[in-house]
Amino acid sequence: MAHHTHHEDTERRILDSARRLFAEKGYEKTSIQDILNDLGLSKGGLYHHFKSKEAILDQLNADEWAVTSRLLDELIERDDMSALEKLRALVISAVDAPDHLDLVRSQLALLKDPAFFTANMRFWSTRLPESFRSLIDMGVQDGSIPTAYPEEAAQLLSLLGNYWLMPCFYPADRTDMERRIRCLATMLDAIGVPVFDETLILRAVKGLTALMPEGEAASA
Amino acid sequence: MAHHTHHEDTERRILDSARRLFAEKGYEKTSIQDILNDLGLSKGGLYHHFKSKEAILDQLNADEWAVTSRLLDELIERDDMSALEKLRALVISAVDAPDHLDLVRSQLALLKDPAFFTANMRFWSTRLPESFRSLIDMGVQDGSIPTAYPEEAAQLLSLLGNYWLMPCFYPADRTDMERRIRCLATMLDAIGVPVFDETLILRAVKGLTALMPEGEAASA
């Protein structure tokens, strides 16, 4: 029991250190040795938990997805919000949470790796739309998301939100980013998914601008 | 000079044979030996022109892109069509041309390869939007494409047309495909890019349905 707790504790410390270092130095520039130095841990102590740097990032991603998944479950249970308000809360958690944005930033370099990129695109076209879909279906029921395209909206929110809006794939300064998000808002409104109201537009611009390479965000 | 002509002729024969075999048997199942047998050519005779099967496909892609590029240049020159009509003609050439669809079909298997997939996504986010952009700018000028989002429309036509509409990435039967295209039409209308009229919607449904795995298209 004590051993079990210690095991989980070490794993948690490795993940916390890695998340911080990936965000500070970037994924590519962080070495396993940096994490060992940070924690005063031996190589064997780390490899007992994670086979590679990629395995650490995979676990951070899984944890992140677990957070979204839990938030989604909590939102679905609430009876004081419409489905549209719940969908907005989910999008806000993605564009507005510093922890989440730190993790996204730490992934940007890794997305240049074809295998990692392809795996992400697959996730964005399958599991992520499923979670949007459940909220959109609730919105069709309660009338807050009056769309004839629930599946298409779920796919597009996932694909466009995670890929098209990202300044690493489609370079943008702040003005470009605001126009891009207003364009998406207009299109989603047209298919009966009015998730981007003025408040969410401005929060999304702010959050996504923070993901730009330093120079571009500053010059914008 | 005679040698030069012979060289080009052999290259053309290899490409024609490969295009046909890739379309008939699929890219993965076509071997270099199949192409040699088809042409009665020696291994050395082929490797003199192409280093690998991938190199043959790259050249087919480049040729295909050259066709689109030439069509775009021709369309830009014409003064008997609005820019919107020109954009429609460009989309029709992509969803309606048997040669083009054969090539796309031959690529579907290869898109499972992360390196090839990543290269395609990069092309769809950079060079392809540029060609759409020139026509959309003309449409803003002549009033036929009254959009405030010319760059965004160019990126979305490219990304959604080549990725989201493809049944290999987002599985769909004929009904799904028609709903997906109508959804895209509604969104593009909303941002002032009314490229999908009823005629184009039906042609796109037909063309993209032909890209489905046999069983799904038949059962739909």
UniProtKB/TrEMBL annotation, chains A, B:
<feature type="domain" description="HTH tetR-type">
    <location>
        <begin position="8"/>
        <end position="68"/>
    </location>
</feature>
<dbReference type="Pfam" id="PF00440">
    <property type="entry name" value="TetR_N"/>
</dbReference>
<dbReference type="InterPro" id="IPR009057">
    <property type="entry name" value="Homeodomain-like_sf"/>
</dbReference>
<keyword id="KW-0238">DNA-binding</keyword>
<keyword id="KW-0805">Transcription regulation</keyword>
<dbReference type="InterPro" id="IPR001647">
    <property type="entry name" value="HTH_TetR"/>
</dbReference>
<dbReference type="GO" id="GO:0000976">
    <property type="term" value="F:transcription cis-regulatory region binding"/>
</dbReference>
<dbReference type="InterPro" id="IPR050109">
    <property type="entry name" value="HTH-type_TetR-like_transc_reg"/>
</dbReference>
<protein>
    <submittedName>
        <fullName>TetR family transcriptional regulator</fullName>
    </submittedName>
</protein>
<dbReference type="InterPro" id="IPR023772">
    <property type="entry name" value="DNA-bd_HTH_TetR-type_CS"/>
</dbReference>
<keyword id="KW-0804">Transcription</keyword>
<dbReference type="GO" id="GO:0003700">
    <property type="term" value="F:DNA-binding transcription factor activity"/>
</dbReference>
<feature type="DNA-binding region" description="H-T-H motif">
    <location>
        <begin position="31"/>
        <end position="50"/>
    </location>
</feature>
<keyword id="KW-0678">Repressor</keyword>
<dbReference type="InterPro" id="IPR036271">
    <property type="entry name" value="Tet_transcr_reg_TetR-rel_C_sf"/>
</dbReference>
